[in-house]
Amino acid sequence: MTLAKRRISPVLIVAAALASASLLAQPASLPNRSGSVKFAAIGDNGTGDRPQYEVAQQMATVHATFPFDLVIMLGDNMYGGQSPADFVRKFEQPYAPLLSAGVKFQASIGNHDRPEQVSYKPYNMNGQRYYTYVRGQVRFFALDSNLLDRKQLEWIDGALRDAREDWKICYFHHPLYSNASRHGSSVDLRVLLEPIFLKYGVNVVFSGHDHVYERLKPQKGIYYFVSGAAGQLRKGNMEPSEQTAAAFDQDQSFMVVEVAGSELFFQSISRAGRTVDSGVIRRQTRVSE
Amino acid sequence: MSKGPRRIRRWRAAFPRLSRFALEHLLLLPLGAAIALVWVNADPESYYRFTYAMSFAVNDVAMVFFFGLMMKEVVEATAPGGVLHPWRRAWLPVIASIGATVVSALLYLRTVNALEEPALEVGWPVSFATDIAVSYFVARIIFRVHPAIPFLLLLAIASNALGFVAIALFDPTRELHLVRGALIMALALGLAFALRRARVKSFWPYLIAAGGASWWAFFWSGLHPALALVPIMPFLPHAARDPGFFVDARPSAHDALSQFEIWWRYPAQATLFFFGLVNAGVPLHALEPGTWGLPIAVLAGKPLGILVATGAALAVGLHLPHKVGWRELIVVGFTAAIGFSMGLFFCTALLPPGQLRSETSMGVLLSLAGAPLALVTARLLRVGRFGR
Description:
Chain A contains 6 helices and 13 strands. Chain A has helices spanning 3-24, 50-65, 84-92, 96-100, 150-162, 187-199, and strands at 37-42, 70-73, 104-107, 131-135, 138-142, 167-171, 204-207, 213-216, 223-227, 244-248, 253-260, 263-270, 275-282. The radius of gyration of chain A is 19 Å and the shape is globular. Chain B is globular, with a radius of gyration of 21 Å. The longest helix of chain B is centred in the N-terminal third of the chain and has 35 residues, at 44-78. Helices cover 67% and strands 0% of the residues of chain B. In chain B, helix 3 runs antiparallel to helix 9 (256-279), helix 5 packs antiparallel against helix 11 and helix 9 (256-279) packs across helix 12. The chains are: A alpha/beta (289), B mainly alpha (388). Chains A and B meet through helix 5 and helix 6 of A and helix 3 and helix 13 of B.
């Protein structure tokens, strides 16, 4: 190989990579309306491995055209060591473009997370295992499905009862409904949470834990998403059932969501930038309305 | 005589004579646990609806009588003439229990982190648990009548007591109101004392008045109310002589403690069945590698901790009981690793429903491996019935 070729080839490789990335990264097929609530959802992400970085890169690419300002984290935010260096390698570095763009991460805790994560500032949990916050006409509820004690159940009951926003979105690690064969539905939690969700008209629930993407058909009127493959992946683990509306288990993935008026648009995007699922949910009519 | 009946008789002779309560503890609780395991994996929704509806009645109310009966055994055994009397001999087992629990807990914390499931750390007090009845049963098979038995019993009682303290202090979800609880407990103890001074011989006033107040004291303080009878049982008048640990009270016995046992042993057995049914249901798909944290910690940590702590105690001048050496201590350690009923109780007291409880409960069930391990080790080390 000549000297000239040696100098040129890395440039060519980078250019080719960028070109291929821009080709693969389809612009988000969401309406991208001004004033809408835009957010991304990632679960089971904190491996520090290459796939996590590639998903994060894809998120940054999507962010360029769909400027979401919130990322909800569905637990298992970090695997293995959880030292300060790990927080850099498994969170701050991969998501640096988003963090520097002012995107706010709001975490929930999974079974691989150390409890001290609630005090890690960039997760914005303010030392709380479970908490709520508002974006526009959407109220989010982050729960701790590791320790769903009576106090937390009373809290979510009261917080949902008092919520006046149009949309109520809950997220936590363990899925109430899932058709992945490794874990599947957390029925023990479902029996406790579902009646409360139904009572107060929760619209959508996001979870992780199973390292796949799955959208479920509305269960008793509530929409459920499993998005636990933003770092980890359990390839071929889906066993779709009649509950399954769409599923993807061939690559890592994340979600972007837009809430505009009475509609919620969603898109699930693979590590390679392919849209694996998308659609729109109309806000459910509540009995009281 | 044919070989068959002789073999059966020999097999029967190998098992110690225990009370119906202890024997049925060894049957009904596992039966409830087995049904729970099948049920939760076949139809989880109906299982959880059933258990959530039943858990308060079983865990917080009915288990009061199980712990009452366990405490009754301890009260009799530590009274003059009892198998655990005098308390002076408790020093070494208590020190050994500190070693067993501390080493188990440290190993547990290391293991769940090594298995990448640090959220399980909150379950460390479960590693303190020892099922007194099962471990006693296994120890009696190995040792028959031997000074290692009271050593094991005292060690188990002390480990469980430390476990209760750990749960009270380190429960991540419980709020304690100890002053309020202490005031009601003072009333409960005062009532029990007054009944004793008045020479009340029936156990009912102790149970209803003092026990009821004690239950509220535990409940309002944020501690587990199943322990309500533990501080009350020592006030009940008891017989002059202890019939032996887990030996049935004679039907003719008129002392309050024996009457309590006669009245409550069958309800307590039913309670144990429901306790297993309500608490041992573990969906197998919920399990992750962290499940192994507890069995690894107790099966390695209990023998190791006992050896280390006993070694330290001997270094400062304490003495091992007659006929108890290092080999016996290792076997006692495996026997004490069996958490079962107490482990499941600690799980439910400490962890709300969910994956962490499921994994820890399965870890408790796996700690039953301590029984065959103790038997194999005893055989290899030629301990107890396997001795020369």
